[in-house]
Amino acid sequence: MVDKKNIIKLKNISFSYPDSYQKGPSLNGTDVKVLNDLSFELNANDKIGMIAPNGSGKTTLLHIIMGLCQPDCGVVELFGEKLTKEKEFALYRPKIGLMFQDSDDQLFNPYVIDDIAFGPLNLGFSQKEALIIAREILSDLGIEDLENSIVHKLSGGQKRLVALATVLAMKPEALLLDEPTAGLDMEVKTRIEGILKNLDIAFLVVAHDFNFLKSISSRIISMTEGKVLMDDQIHIHQHEHIHKYGHDPHTHV
After folding, report:
1. pLDDT of residue 32
2. Number of domains into which the chain is organized
3. Which residues contact 121 (CB under 8 A, 6 or more apart)?
4. Which element (helix H / strand E) includes 37?
5. Does any domain span residue 58?
6. Beta-carbon neighbour count of residue 106 at 10 Å?
7. How confident is the model over 49-58, as pLDDT tens digits?
8. Which of 2, 110, 177, 184 could share a disulfide with 99, CB 3.0–4.6 Å?
């Protein structure tokens, strides 16, 4: 793969949810704009982390890339091809693995091995070949003991690892990961961190854990007002502070 090969290019993307969807504050009954003239690129071998407040449009951005949401305006290009129709996106989805924020949205077969083999089967591999691929991925991730486990009985961390396995079994050229470590204990976070460090494909990882993103990424970007902020436009830092609302959940932007 050529280092500068363009995998994802978004140009001047805008997207709004209907006001009734309430993705953001109501604006006199009008639609709520989530993405606003947004542009973004992911090239081969890019390792990009994204950190931004809830509601800033991170998940919507990933869904736009995969054709799960249609932008109000702008251009989506995957591997140099401008895409607008569902059948066009369907051709490229196997090349870009999307890991959903909720593993239950990704896992639907009764047994782990069936979930992981599902992707290769849909790519045209035989049952035998798909099982070989699935078992290789399980071994690579160190979760081969889960092969015959019942999916709905898995812990949250185990489900997250299996969801990642289903994506990697497709042999994608890039990954989009939506909060892969949210709510996980340190052991599983460390395992996912190690997996991503050893991947030789491009990825965009959305997370709230700055230390995790710093460990796996070569660049960290953010989002505000529906736009992507690049490295030279942001300054992300950790800090300690004391104020009277310290015990209550709150957000700093």
Report:
1. 83
2. 1
3. 127, 130
4. strand 32-43
5. yes
6. 18
7. 999 998 899 9
8. 177
